[in-house]
Predict the 3D structure of the following.
Amino acid sequence: MEQGNGKKLVIGVIGADVHAVGIRILEYAFREAGFDVTNLGVMVSQEEFIGAALETAADAIVISSLYGHGELDCRGMRDKMDEAGLDGLLLYVGGNIVVGKQDFVDVEKRFHEMGFDRVFPPGTPPEETIFYLKKDLEVE
Amino acid sequence: MRYALLIDFGSTFTKVTAVDLISEEIIGTASAFTTADSDIGTGLNVALDRLRRVTGDIAFDFKSACSSAAGGLRMMVSGLVPELTAEAARLAALGAGARITRLFTHELTRRDLKDIEADPPDIFLMTGGTDGGNRACMEKNAGKLRSLSVRFPIILAGNRQAIDACEDALEDFPVTVCPNVMPSFGVLNIEPVQREIRDLFLKHIVNARGLSKTKEILSDILMPTPSAILSAMKLLADGTETEPGIGELMGIDVGGATTDVYTVARGEPIDMNVICKGLDEPYAKRTVEGDIGMRYSVAGIVSEVGQPWISECSGLTSDDCAALMSELLYDKSKVPLTNDDAMARFDHALASGAVEIATRRHAGVLEEAFTTSGLVYVQTGKDLRSVRQIIFTGGSFIHAQNPLDIARHALYTERYPMSLRPKKATVLKDDRYILSAMGVLAEREKDIALRIIKRELVSPGDISSGDDS
Ligand code: B12
């Protein structure tokens, strides 16, 4: 395990999504990479992400969505964060965030417009996410 | 011969209980009226004179007390997010027997500070942030409290990274530091704070409450009355090493101004497809409904259940109900004259309503979530459906003509299937108001206190929600 880098992440699976395995793997991978992780598990509401990020003074929120309703579930997340005083906080999303095989360039654009800093296509390995987290949070 | 004297300083009555520690019996009880302002010592002496008439002159091995006199233990609590650290702080204070006069979330405002100055608390509990998490909330609030012209004990129990700065800012307040009430997300750690609250109550509050004059007659123990009751409930549920308890239970105290609900139960999910959300729940939990009470908070009951509900439950017309309500507005000391007069029936409905609302607010709830793979339930709070005992204390219930009908309102019903209240239960009544006294006695004599509670509680019968499946 890498030495702790002092950066705090809040992660979870948003909405009514119960896919529980991927997020455990991400938790493990992020910890191994030196992050301090609060994993909220499955079926996490926007408010729970925000409450946890506030209390833990998180450096980033990483949202996972696998069941296809990601777009609906993520709508308004950035606005709520702004309201809660978390403006500017790094916000990622990934998994299978939309239904079926849509052109990812479009999907990415839509999520960028919703205020997500980075949007990851299906099958993104944890290493890639870790690379970007370290880059965006200026670790090392 | 060994005797113990247990004293309960209340807001209107001082009650004394004498216990024979050898035969393990209550050998006498007495009470005396005490107004909020009058010297509490006078009330105690009158009560003791009356007790002596029953027990004769006996020497007590120790004298211990609990108190809710002069408004009880008045606390303000602050936290960051309402559902998280602020809720943890609230649970901590209530469980320690406090009355929460204000709850603050996020940063204190100028108006908040004015309110604090106008009516300062006995203790201020400051929380916010997980360990290593948010520091700004505690640090800024500490800086703001510093500017006040009043001083009071402050307990710091939030993010440990913020403690140093807070201690510096609050150097001329009596400050104590406790472990974080929510050290990491969703994890509740309130016992250390509760112990500290009790210590402070003993050290500081007792003097401020005119109780110091009674100090010479008291031995060491003095605790807030609700904390004595919770401690008696916990003893009754868990038992001791040598004396078994009766298992998980719920306790209800419908008072004149507030309604307290206690549960000693784990409350974990029973069904398979349930996902738990929110903060951990304390095993021994107390909630207080400040707007639900038989005399000072009648309006709260009526506005929650609705006028028609009260009419139906009492069998009175809505005009009669309205008339009785305004009578109570002017005369809080009004009581039924017979078992079946209009006032008695109105009281029956009020008590039923109070039990209904207060238990619904205390119990956990399920929410349905329709997911693509079917129905999933999300549980917040405790699932109490398998709790099988409900203890009632407090006059409105003890003197009621049909206590079981009132008690039934604490149960699970098809009307509110998402409210996770007990499905059926044996009702137990604290007929002689011994629970607080036994909570105090338990500090020294756990086994004796437990055996007396078990013997003293009487059961008027069992109740069932009728739809047991
Ligand atoms: C097991 C499973 C289930 C189980 C879940 C059990 C459980 N509690 O975990 C059950 C049977 C309950 C289930 C139900 C459903 N499922 Co399903 N399920 C799967 C399955 C087969 C495996 C998921 C899994 O655990 N994978 C292993 C883990 C390690 O991988 P992962 O979850 O993908 O996570 C990794 C990456 O995606 C990535 N990642 C995840 N999140 C994030 C976030 C960020 C920011 C980043 C960078 C990366 C990242 O990193 C993770 C670790 O490597 C997948 C198909 C598949 N092979 O992936 C379908 C799949 C996810 N399910 C699917 C569907 C449609 C459903 C249902 C809607 C089916 C239905 N109609 O009932 C329901 C939805 C239920 C709900 N409310 O959530 C679809 C989603 C399609 C889409 N989005 O377009 C999939 C892809 C199957 C398919 N090809 O159709 N499912």
Remarks:
- Residues A 16-22, 25-26, 62, 64, 66-68, 92-96, 99-100, 120, 124, 126, 129; B 371-373 surround cobalamin (CB under 6 Å).
- DSSP finds six helices and five strands in chain A.
- The longest strand of chain A covers residues 8-13.
- The mean pLDDT of chain A is 92.
